[in-house]
Amino acid sequence: MSFPEHAKPHFKSTVQNRANFDDWRVSWKKETVAVKPTTLVKTKLSTSTGLEQTTTAVKDVAVDHTQPTKQYRLVSSAHGAILEMLLTIPDYAMEDKSLKAVYDNIFHYMPKYTRLTILIDKSAKDAVEELLTKYERNTPELVQIIVKEDESENISIWAEDAYVCNYIPTTTQNEKVTRFLTAPIQFPRYADSTIALQVSNEYEGSNPLKVRPTPLIFQGGNTLIGDDFFMVGKDYLMDSIDFVQKYGSISQRSGETLKDAVIRSYKTHLDTTRRLIFPGTADERPCPNQVSVPFIGKDEKTGKDEYRNEVLYFGNGRGAEKVWEPLFHIDMFITLLGRNKETNKYQVLVASPELAVDTLGWDKEKVRFAYAMQLSFDEIAKQLEDEGFEVDRMSLPMVYFDSEEDGTKYWYFTTYNNCLVQIPLEDNETVNGIKVEKKVWLPQYGYGAWESLKATDEAAIKKFEKYGFTVQPMGDFHPFASNLGALHCIKKYLLRTVPSN
């Protein structure tokens, strides 16, 4: 299939880039004077700078809470009917036709038992309500609209990232579930750190929704939650270790390494009931950071050779010296599929740029395949196999757009992994009389200059159908993918059905 010499964006979008974290990471990583832990906490910390600290034990811990005082459980990324979902819709998302079309599809195709909580700019309210009315969703049972408190504060469309949603498991079937938007120690992307508090303050659902802080670094998009496990991308494990080493926000217990203490804290604050996995490449094999390099390309009008720049590994690094994820959030390249009923092994899809190139018949040199980090994706696939998962692969095309400002070519991944997944708890599960389908809501990319991606669109549908899913295509996601996100990134699951005790 043909590969275009130029690809001007076929959308006029002002989407904020999802990986806009450079200033934050640089601000605390570049400082070289370490804070002495004893000035921040009452207990002593190891002074070793290595991750595998084994020699210095804590001897003066006043209270050793060997078990968390409360049990927390994360809302699953795949299992149970999707009962409640959070969206954040700034004004530009209703002004841009390509973005508005995606939200139109969300309102159209999500089940009528899915209640939407929507934080919006005041100027977007009329357009959002019009779409909700169009699909008979503008009722208290199906939606709550929360108008942002301060119009000068900029929230993004990326509702997934600034928190995770967890809850305290109940002991009786009819007991109300207390849920939390649990936040990292800081989240300096736009004003997204204010979303959790604004939503919890105004929330009117039947189950309480509160806010909890933590001493850790994480983001919702770098977290995936299965049935008896959850995953946190390795980058944020390493960031949290560095942060704790510098600021002393967590104390080590007797016999713990610093890494042990951070992992314990993740389990205590996020999920005390599931095993924890950190997908990423080996310590000695970090992934490359974003770079801009010159190349000789054709002028679009004259056809003559010209010097231009191209950005490779777009979004990687974000101010960090090293990263261990080929895409900065694991929801961009891992999808949860549920258990194989015959083997009882959990099944996952891991992205593969090579599979996309083979499906499309593209020339590897022309499409910069050497920069697609195939070996990193393969290594993480092997890591998950070693953890006991059944791993299949999903196409991950790498395409580009030419900046309208200076012609710079930005290479980005069009991810099918970043979808919505619903796996019923039982074959006959119903909610409000509606059957809960085993279903995927899937981004599409065969549009504009990249119409050839219809082949991978179709291949992605067939891949999910192979695992028994009904697939709902959700339209053109280039405006999102070119800003390092897709469908899974613009929502947050707030409540799903859970197994009865």
Structure description:
With 501 residues, the chain is α/β, with parallel strands linked by helices. The protein has helices spanning 22-29, 91-95, 97-109, 125-134, 195-202, 234-247, 258-269, 353-360, 374-386, 454-466, 478-481; strands spanning 73-74, 82-89, 115-120, 143-147, 164-167, 179-183, 209-213, 223-225, 229-232, 275-277, 291-298, 305-312, 334-339, 346-352, 390-395, 398-402, 409-413, 420-422, 430-431, 434-435, 439-444, 470-476, 492-496. 22% of the residues lie in helices and 23% in strands. The strands form seven sheets. It has a four-stranded mixed beta sheet with strand order 1-5-6-7, covered by helices on one side. Strands 4-3-2-23 form a four-stranded mixed beta sheet. A hairpin with a 6-residue loop joins β16 and β17 (409-413). The chain is globular, with a radius of gyration of 23 Å.
Blueprint of the fold:
Blueprint: H1 22-29, E1 73-74, E2 82-89, H2 91-95, H3 97-109, E3 115-120, H4 125-134, E4 143-147, E5 164-167, E6 179-183, H5 195-202, E7 209-213, E8 223-225, E9 229-232, H6 234-247, H7 258-269, E10 275-277, E11 291-298, E12 305-312, E13 334-339, E14 346-352, H8 353-360, H9 374-386, E15 390-395, E16 398-402, E17 409-413, E18 420-422, E19 430-431, E20 434-435, E21 439-444, H10 454-466, E22 470-476, H11 478-481, E23 492-496
Helix pairs in contact: 6-7
